[in-house]
Amino acid sequence: MASTKTIKAAVLGASGYTGADMIRLAARHPNIEIVALIAKGHAGQPLAQVFPHLGSLELPALVTSDQIDWSKVDVVFGGLPHGTSHAEIAKLPQSIRVVDMSADFRLRDPKTYAEWYGGEHSAPELIKDAVYGLTEHYRNKIKAARIVACPGCYPTAVLLALLPLLKAKLIEAEDIIIDAKSGVSGAGRTLKQNILFSEAGEGLSPYGIGNHRHVPEIEQELGAVAGSAVTINFTPHLAPMSRGELCTCYVRLAGKASAAALREALAASYETSPFVHIVEEGTIPATQHVRGSNYCHIGVFKDRLESRAIVVSAIDNLVKGSAGQALQNFNVMYGFEETLGLEQLPLFP
Amino acid sequence: MASTKTIKAAVLGASGYTGADMIRLAARHPNIEIVALIAKGHAGQPLAQVFPHLGSLELPALVTSDQIDWSKVDVVFGGLPHGTSHAEIAKLPQSIRVVDMSADFRLRDPKTYAEWYGGEHSAPELIKDAVYGLTEHYRNKIKAARIVACPGCYPTAVLLALLPLLKAKLIEAEDIIIDAKSGVSGAGRTLKQNILFSEAGEGLSPYGIGNHRHVPEIEQELGAVAGSAVTINFTPHLAPMSRGELCTCYVRLAGKASAAALREALAASYETSPFVHIVEEGTIPATQHVRGSNYCHIGVFKDRLESRAIVVSAIDNLVKGSAGQALQNFNVMYGFEETLGLEQLPLFP
Amino acid sequence: MASTKTIKAAVLGASGYTGADMIRLAARHPNIEIVALIAKGHAGQPLAQVFPHLGSLELPALVTSDQIDWSKVDVVFGGLPHGTSHAEIAKLPQSIRVVDMSADFRLRDPKTYAEWYGGEHSAPELIKDAVYGLTEHYRNKIKAARIVACPGCYPTAVLLALLPLLKAKLIEAEDIIIDAKSGVSGAGRTLKQNILFSEAGEGLSPYGIGNHRHVPEIEQELGAVAGSAVTINFTPHLAPMSRGELCTCYVRLAGKASAAALREALAASYETSPFVHIVEEGTIPATQHVRGSNYCHIGVFKDRLESRAIVVSAIDNLVKGSAGQALQNFNVMYGFEETLGLEQLPLFP
Amino acid sequence: MASTKTIKAAVLGASGYTGADMIRLAARHPNIEIVALIAKGHAGQPLAQVFPHLGSLELPALVTSDQIDWSKVDVVFGGLPHGTSHAEIAKLPQSIRVVDMSADFRLRDPKTYAEWYGGEHSAPELIKDAVYGLTEHYRNKIKAARIVACPGCYPTAVLLALLPLLKAKLIEAEDIIIDAKSGVSGAGRTLKQNILFSEAGEGLSPYGIGNHRHVPEIEQELGAVAGSAVTINFTPHLAPMSRGELCTCYVRLAGKASAAALREALAASYETSPFVHIVEEGTIPATQHVRGSNYCHIGVFKDRLESRAIVVSAIDNLVKGSAGQALQNFNVMYGFEETLGLEQLPLFP
User: Fold this and answer.
1) CATH architecture entry for A7-128
2) ipTM
């Protein structure tokens, strides 16, 4: 029987793409009531003005965080950019649970955070309480957490593909090469020249080579499983599409492991995970087959280099890579079905 | 309280885009059980092979219509191309209700059908029973219909914008000019050179000028309301996007009508229609704001030509323009909430 | 025999798309030496940094206009935004000829300029000297002009299609409806939310309905030919492509004129114009068939409304709609072959 | 002084994208007269019908190869698909020189050809005469060749990036991983479902993993330089753009080599090659910066994995990856400036 309890939610950063997709999904969740939309620069504007596609929703206008009566909020979905999230979250009453989609609570070491994100963390004591929100791997911790730090979009796609393999010692922790491709929405809604239609359209190029901020997060999680520090190659590319993320991971096989063994291990690992789908042999993951959904498609392929294999994963960067996974974590935290509010099938074409 | 009855549905033409979107939506409708997927050329294949994005659904493999036990089917969703639909539907037992998305039952005059669709209609007697499925305007007839002929994508966008205005005598029936723009999925999944990515990408051009098959359908419905034959200009264009349809209608104002009066009439006409949204003044309909949803956004604008106004409507050609409206009609036919299974908000970006 | 004289050119506004295409074309013109690139906000930067695709050219770094020795410049190509161009051009020595791509010298009446462009014109006395640079229609005046004001992209496409018809009294000046569609580069390189890839991609919508700044320019030129003031409907749309512009013009036939007569008149009018091509019957103009070239393709089509016809024109907004036409005017001004430096065929796909 | 000799050229396969780009470029080459366009399936049609963007050219209509008087042809540009080219070329008189863009004369071992291309080679004796047309590396051989087998698009981008490094022993021949991304035009104009706009648009996926036909060609050339057989990982991806190819090559550094040393070696190697450009440090190759041009941009980047480096190359698959390189080879064969007819700058945006 369906639960009838209602959780009151506020969305921090409601004017960005992450916030918009959070609203899109949460508004249709049967047990969520969105009570506040927070976006400093847009305070006073109705949602329909900021996001016309959400104009049919009857929701309060956008406000600043000062204008909120926090005693009437149960949970906060954080869609602020990294660096601005930690201060806002530190101000919240302890009674409020937080599902944060920013990078601010993902790295366990505040020094690493300061090094990669260019500034001191203002609430290092909260980091300890935060749980890394890769749902499929940390369900139990998430259930009890006050703060869930949802993984970045790239780490989600990479870790879902590689964590079970490293854990099972089927691949080496050395020499992992990840060639990642993302749609432009991954860069957010802030005005930047390289994400103009005329600049990004009909073109493809790598960016952040060797220094993308998702590197330490991936290395932290792989290292935790490997038992020692892991260094990876991670090379993201900007592709001319709005949504979608594809990670092509080139891995070295451990011992006598084969591509087939990798596939089996992944299938076993995600047997009870409704959103991770190991594609049939002969099928290849493609971003257009997960668009708009919370699914992650993973495929394993034989490499011509005998000691290696190729693991490919595809997600929608704004859904499984952000707002969808946040809602999935919310469901785990509050004891709902993991798929609740996330039943939408991919939109293709 | 939610109804618990289950309607058993078969999808005809399950390998096309219309069929795919029908499956995508019907699979999540709480009162529909999809019992058969029919696609002659793909019989024997699992759905995941034909549409990998639907691979998570546990549905029967595709079959030919001969392989169906029709006694176990309540309703058929028809997604076949025009010209092939009428013969298939004529073969169905009378007990089965039909929601057809093809053009085969839209035109009331079989001669007009033969003239525009290049072939005799094989079941003219069924045309009489068919109801034109523009939900917002024919709810009552649809409720009782055995066969509902869902409008084409263009007619849906045009008629939702113009029918109430013509009915209220706010615009003239003469000199209606409709400049329409459609995404490439409107051309279907059949292989044709002009819809290759390299041909349609980064380009825009009109097509079917003066002879697009949606013309007689629009003229039939406008004429029914005007009380006499109506001739229109309808000029569709192919735009480099997958989904979406925008109709810019240039209309002559009747008597002392003004753009403001048109806006009011439309707002009044759709007050209780959940999917038709008259956008605020200052807002402009855009296909990206309805993508993936069953919404139709309509705006009215002052023209520099004093005697004229501009009415703009935007839909997703595969949802409100096809499968979504079909499901909406299904809901009306079976007494469900009109929005059931159609709650998905637009996917933006 | 090819002329060997060399004209020294400066490009004003070298950091925008118009400036970039001007450099792209001028750099390959056999009789042009680019001696200065001016862009206030980028002074000091090498061109390769501002436009990596032009990195192979050995050109001086960008400078401010103060840094130029104007005595060494023969001609200025103006690529500044409207409103900033007139002041810069007013400062130039009289000996310098100007091919301006901004809107600042297009409107003959400074009051109309002030009304539509929101500010007084600082050099109204120069307007008198300026010639409207629609090459095919004003060659003789352009030859002798000091300042040539190149038409906007939309006016170019519209006027090439309609001027000869209005002049020949084959169409009425009343009730002209122009539904125009442009690629995103038409909006320039300045950061604006609506031209982000994630906003404009996979979407289509009208903008500037009834008040686009190209309206007075079109009305001025149509009025000059009609012999009295002309009011038009002009409704531009933003389409998800980088380059390209398509104008679908709905016109009322005068007297007994027919679509065939219009086609003949256009063909006759442009018989000796190398860049304007009246497409064969059965062929439809498409932006992807003129991309990257200085061509304008025009087609005429019968309308279902008997008293009307449809004239469709397609150009590349940055070439024939801007930098290409500027170079064409330069050729006319200096007595070169009109096609010199503009021989590039369209880039398709 | 410019040469005035005229070479008479025929284009085989004039109805494909490769043929079209060959015509586009050759038509503007000052020393080429296109005397015949051959395309079996389109014989009798004017070029304007097959490729409207080339409609302004006054060229003979398309014909079959039987209809040609080969005594009046000096050179053949071969744009046929692999497997059909060798038979046509074998029939040509010995006096005709051939620049072939198909795969049929690239592999020196007919057995390897049969294995990868699924059929016996009908003219193995001609393979011996054929020279591999990677212009920058085989200029001298090309000069004297009767048949030049232009490299595939991927091999061009990969070999330009890696050959000098392997030759200089700066990288290991083992463990080369190439993650390649191509625009859709690389798949040709033949109708296939996966290259429909609605399938490929807004999506990204790998294909031909481990078995793409360009593998043996890359391995052959790398092996020739390494002095022993080389096995590589080559994983191509289909990206939602029409033109452009980006290869991200992950290489193991040999001895004490560094990314800086690789950069220097490449710069030295291509110092006198006008089309290969090693981008400045801090700049990243991007397909949109070479589009429509014959340039190849290459960048070298430090890897987080200490023993590795990343070499990125970008080309336009139809120009440097096909027709442009063919014309460059033609220039070498006939003693023209290597850049003749290839001066077009990239088209951006």
Assistant:
1) 3-Layer(aba) Sandwich (3.40)
2) 0.97
